[in-house]
Amino acid sequence: MSEQLPLSSLHPLAPEFLSTAALYTAPIDVDAAVARIGGLWNEQIDPKWNEIPAGALGKGSPAGRILQFEIDDVVVMVTPEGGQLPVEGGQLPEHSFYAAVSCYAPLREAAVAEPQSPADLPEVKRRKRMVSAHIVMTEVMDALMREEAAVGVFRSELGVVQPPEMVTELANSLTEGQAPLPLWVAVRIFHPDLVHGRTLGLPLFGHLDLEVLDSTHSEEDVFAMLANIADYIISSDSFLLPGQTIGYREDEELQITQEVSDADGQQVIRIQ
């Protein structure tokens, strides 16, 4: 781990909110679906409905209801809505009902006045809180995707709709102490000539996304490398900083730099 402080000068600050949406072909009993969390994950929750008057969320906003509860100090808010989820660009699978879900995981403890190590930094602790938020979100979505009318989970940051079977199967990784990485981070591989690869979703954990350009390795190798590195930095206190190297194989050290991606103009960590 690098001793350079502060790390926030390179990596983005992990957010406090994580949001997604569960899509359905018909309305569901939200109370019954949420209650399933207790049996599946042995979580003690006390859901309560909050009535939202018209205009409370902005001029012209309609009245609605939000089901709220907490898991491991993460506040979960579930808002059922009829109709189709509005998105910018692209097209979602056919659905007529959705449940918008947000997890709020603020850093509650006071920041260390003079950090003695990177682990003491508020941004590092924020990253750990977002790991907790992703774990809670996975448990909630596992319960919601067991409805017969479930279509999938829409992750706008990843640009994908994850099917119910994928969500429920990968969520089980948590019981084995492993991160269900494909639910949290997308790894895209392109092969115009040489192999290109890119992650999506790491900024939610307070890390820049990873990028590989013009690799002579196979698509499978590049995918595995990006997935393994993403899993490592999410589950540890490590950070990738320009000038470091990554041990890929016994005889290969990969250089990393900070670059701007040609794909979307975002700052990334490029693995040479």
Can you describe what's shown?
The protein has 272 residues and is of the alpha+beta class. The chain has 2 domains: 7-181; 186-271, no CATH class. Helices cover 24% and strands 31% of the residues. The strands form 2 sheets. A 7-stranded antiparallel sheet has the order 2-3-4-5-1-6-7. A 6-stranded mixed sheet has the order 8-9-10-13-12-11. α2 packs across α3. The longest helix is centred in the middle third of the chain and has 23 residues, at 122-144.
Distance between the termini: 19 Å
Low-confidence stretches: 1-6
Radius of gyration: 20 Å
Order of helices and strands: EHEEEEHEEHHEEEHEEE
Biggest sheet strand order reads 2-3-4-5-1-6-7
Task: Please describe the topology of this protein.
Layout: E1 17-24, H1 30-41, E2 48-52, E3 64-71, E4 74-82, E5 97-104, H2 122-144, E6 150-155, E7 160-162, H3 164-171, H4 181-184, E8 186-190, E9 195-200, E10 209-215, H5 219-235, E11 245-249, E12 252-260, E13 267-271
Parallel strand pairs: 10-13
Antiparallel strand pairs: 1-5, 1-6, 2-3, 3-4, 4-5, 6-7, 8-9, 9-10, 11-12, 12-13
Helix pairs in contact: 1-2, 2-3
